[in-house]
Amino acid sequence: MTVATRWLTSDQQKAWRSFLVGTTLLMDRLDRDLRDQHDLSLPEYEILVRLSESPERALRMAELADSVKNSRSRITHTIARMEAIGLVMRRQCSSDGRGVVACLTDAGYSRLVEAAPDHVESVRDALINVVQPADLAALGRAMSTVARRLDTDTPDPLLSSRSV
Amino acid sequence: MTVATRWLTSDQQKAWRSFLVGTTLLMDRLDRDLRDQHDLSLPEYEILVRLSESPERALRMAELADSVKNSRSRITHTIARMEAIGLVMRRQCSSDGRGVVACLTDAGYSRLVEAAPDHVESVRDALINVVQPADLAALGRAMSTVARRLDTDTPDPLLSSRSV
DNA sequence: GCGGCAAAATTGAACCGTCAACTACCGGTT
DNA sequence: AACCGGTAGTTGACGGTTCAATTTTGCCGC
Question: The pTM is what?
Answer without folding.
Answer: 0.90
